[in-house]
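Page 42, continued from yesterday. The earlier attempt failed because a stray header line got pasted into the input along with the sequence. Redoing it now with the clean sequence only.
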Amino acid sequence: MALYYCLVKPTGKIPYLNLGCGYTFHEDWTNLDFVSNSPHVIAHNLLSGIPFEDATFEVVYHSHVLEHFPKGEAPAFLRECARVMKSGGVIRIAIPDLEQIAVNYLKYLNAAAQGDQQAVFRYHWSVMEMYDQVVRTKSGGEMSAMLRNLRPEEAAFLIERNGKEIQNILDEMKNGSTHSGKTSYSFGQRLKSLPESLRHRLLRLLMGEDYRLYATAKFRSQGEIHQWMYDRFSLGELLTSSGFKNPVVCTAFESAIQDWKKFGLDGEGTNIRKPDSLFMEATRK
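This time it went through. Structure tokens are written below.
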């Protein structure tokens, strides 16, 4: 992990830190993400460490962030989390649950092989959850294609399985407002000033067959792919080796964090934001 620099903690905040928050954050927390989408979010590259002094926070939380770190870099990231936490503080992590994906894969594989037609789509989706975001070479991967032209029962299964965020994606597709998945590539300051379409044509001309490799490498370095997957055993092991103790599996609404439910980070009411998640908490040693 690279050297960090120190920021003054924003005034009026409770000592709770949300890392890689995206669009899901609470104004009373200190919120960090690679790109800021709100005055309440600090833009910071977590690959450079966490930009706060030792023992600043009582709580550190991150949802669907850890799996984007290479396996070899995950311990350093969690040690950074431990460094900025007070002794006895709570870390809460939400990640895709490899165990549940594997259970679903075997369940729907067996059912599909026995002729259950409803299980066929669910089998293919389980394989997609397991592999697509690991191997994809363009934004959205094969998953985007699979989400188009779903039957109602298939869409209902995905919403039950993956929650509000998959519903948002389906709504965007229906309204024709999905992201194009295009990535801007640079080749020096002059190239940056050119229109995107001209840049792509120039890069293809200059690089020939190497352009495809360049584009793939550029995309895979930008954070969308999953670098590793965890289950309750491997995540517990990682936490206990990184400065934490007593890891415990929680539900979206169970927590040792005071007033957890009111923040609405893992869900609101009875609606879980990412039902496919493994939720785990541990205590800073």
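Notes: The first strand starts at residue 16 and ends at 19.
Reminder to self: strip header lines before submitting.
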